[in-house]
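anyone seen this seq b4? input:
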Amino acid sequence: MQCWMEGGNSTLVQGNDELVRNYVQKVEGIDVDMSQIVVVLNSDFYAGTNNNYWYSENEPLVMAISYCPTINGLGSEDFRRVLVHETVGHGIGKLHDEYSYEEQGAIPMDERLQFQQQQRDFDWWLNVDFTDDWNAVLWSDFLTDPRYDGQGLGVFEGACTYWSGAYRSTEESMMRNNILGFNAPSRRAIYQKVIERGERRTPSLEEFISFDQQTYVPQTRAAGQAPSRPFARPQVKRLERP
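predicted toks r here
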């Protein structure tokens, strides 16, 4: 699929998106615009990137392409992490990264406004926000719900790779250091996307909570388990109509 890696300290990996789409369209009856596509690279290089797409600024696509090398082998924990982070998190859930770098400083206003517009128009990036107000943050419902006590929920500064001005709901998560599981806002976003695609409807908050209460399994860091080096931030690309 003509894949390439940026190399160095970067974990960015990309490929020929058009070639990937053309290959997937060979599957009988598939709607490529509604597909989550995973390209597994025959390489153990530490990298991973997901691409989300739109035809125009007001027409997002469900389709996403995740490029995932076989980090330390197909059966390794590192490979599992890249698949879950990129494919389930960025691709299906349309989640943003929750990690941050001090050298990145504060999120620029133009990026903040772009992310907020995508949150409003597309329901993307619902696991991050740009306010520390517990009453206004996107996951405020969980902060006051006793059913979510003990899950470490709050408002923590640092997200979208920026050190300040962007916020996440937990100290650690699959979208931060690729450890533990998805936090409640992320699980809600993933559930919503699955129901919207599978049943063509938007589930209510209480529907999600009912499901979540039955399926949530608390996770703790395994002995010796260290945070992974963060993967490249999700890419958003515009496609031309075929």
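The first strand starts at residue 4 and ends at 5. Strands lie at 4-5, 13-14, 36-41, 49-56, 59-69, 100-106, 156-159, 161-168, 235-238. kinda curious what u guys think
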